[in-house]
Amino acid sequence: GDCAKGILVIQELDFSQTRYFVDHRRVCVIGGHGGQGITSFHSEPRKEFGGPDGGNGGDGGHVILKADQQIKSLASVLPLYRGFDGERGRSKNCYGANGGYTYIKVPVGTLVKEDGKIVSDLTQHGEEYVAAYGGTGGKGNQFFLSNENRAPMTATLGESGQKRVLYLELKTMAHAGLVGFPNAGKSSLLRAISNAKPAVAPYPFTTLNPHVGIVHYQDYEQVAVADVPGIIRGAHLNRGLGLAFLKHIEHCRFLLFVVDLSVSEPWIQLQDLKYELEQYEEGLSKRPHAVIGNKMDLPQSKANLLLLKERVEQRVIPLSALTGDNLEELLLHLRDMYDAYVTTEQSRRQNPVKW
Ligand SMILES: Nc1nc2c(ncn2[C@@H]2O[C@H](COP(=O)(O)OP(=O)(O)OP(=O)(O)O)[C@@H](O)[C@H]2O)c(=O)[nH]1
Ligand SMILES: [Mg+2]
User: Fold this and answer.
1) How far is the CA of 355 from the centre of ligand 2 (A)?
2) How far is the CA of 295 from the centre of ligand 1 (A)?
3) Least packed by Cβ within 10 Å: which of 30, 88, 146, 326?
4) Spatial contact of 138 and 35, defined as CB atoms under 8 Å apart
5) Nearest ligand to residue 186 Cα
6) Which of 178, 179, 181, 183 for a ligand 1 pocket mutation test, highest count of atoms within 8 Å of Cβ?
7) pLDDT, tens digit, for every residue of 326-353?
């Protein structure tokens, strides 16, 4: 019931490395170098000549991407990973140890791309993708022993590891995305409903990076809401902060359009926002969404709200991020949208994204 949906506590995610959410990264991965094989001959006291006993080098370690539910953003991924080298072989037919694997933990839902093509899609907790294979170890001279050659001097070097440049992209950045023009009050709203503390200021483009805040409900469900930088007319042509942010929006499961009701003809804002989304990706403006009429505390807003309601089909939630008025309605509706998302995913036999 509604009681269970009451809002308990609210907190901001702590991304230890950065204050903001990172949903794409370029990463260079190099597998470990194979260890070198060696040339050596068996020696024992009083025995002048023994057979070849130079061992093989160990294989270089792989660099492996691993999906981990605990990881929520790509912020902790470094630009370069080099795998562990294999050890060189030793005498007495001792093989060098293989290099251990290097794991890069990434969030569930990470797409891996190379030259613009998708090479992997890590959708399950624990799923792995070998990003760079380690090089094979070299052969020691015992390997070259044959009837023709009883005393081979040859040993080979290890191979170098695979080297690749990959682009990681997070498919889901949050459940809900706040979409609106600069100054509409998106960051103020995120501050009001979560403990996230994105900067708020009376000028456009205050927010330059997305922030994610978590809304906790009493039954322990958590809904992640992203504050995306403002978009403007022509964003799909890369104006303003442009395309990068339309991409963030693409990665949200449902949208909250934030309209500034103190501005005349607020429905134009809504039309423009939907137009930009649609130009960027067909169907994006039709994702499940709600319309939020913000700044209800300002004098012109009441009249504008009535006009807006006449002109849009979907429900409009009037509120004030500043005074906190009517946030409850938004939070309950947010939960309804989240529940609908979970049900849809389950009916498609998909795992809904949990925070
Ligand atoms: N009166 C009033 N002012 C508000 C309300 N919400 C936000 N503001 C003010 O509007 C201005 C912009 O708010 P922000 O939250 O920074 O807006 P934003 O949409 O995040 O802006 P960008 O990050 O630039 O896209 C600030 O001066 C806020 O104090 C509200 O409900 N009422
Ligand atoms: Mg902002």
Assistant:
1) 23
2) 8
3) 146
4) yes
5) 1
6) 183
7) 999 999 999 999 999 999 989 988 778 7
Whose C-alpha lies nearest to ligand 1, atom 14? 185
Atom of ligand 1 nearest to the CA of 199: 16
Ligand nearest to the CA of 324: 1
Element (H, E) at 39: none
CA distance 262 to 108: 40
Return the beta strands (E) in the chain as ranges: 7-12, 24-30, 63-67, 80-82, 102-106, 110-114, 117-122, 128-132, 163-170, 174-180, 211-217, 222-227, 252-260, 289-294, 316-318
Residues with CB under 5 A from ligand 2 (ion): 187, 206-207
Taking the CB of residue 4, how many other CB atoms lie within 10 A of it?
A: 11
| Residues contacting ligand 1 via CB (< 6 Å) | 180, 182-188, 200-202, 204-207, 229-230, 294-295, 297-298, 320-322
CB atoms within 10 A of CB 29: 24
Torsion of CA 94, 98, 99, 104, to 10 degrees: -170
Whether residue 225 contacts residue 189, with contact meaning beta carbons closer than 8 Å, is answered with no
Q: Could you give the C-alpha distances from 132 to 27, 71, 80, 161, 342, in angstroms and in order? A: 11, 21, 12, 7, 35
- Cα angle vertex 277, ends 274, 69, to 5°? 120
For residue 329, give the 3-state DSSP assignment.
Answer: helix
pLDDT in tens, 153-207: 999 999 999 999 999 998 777 899 999 998 999 999 999 998 777 777 666 666 6
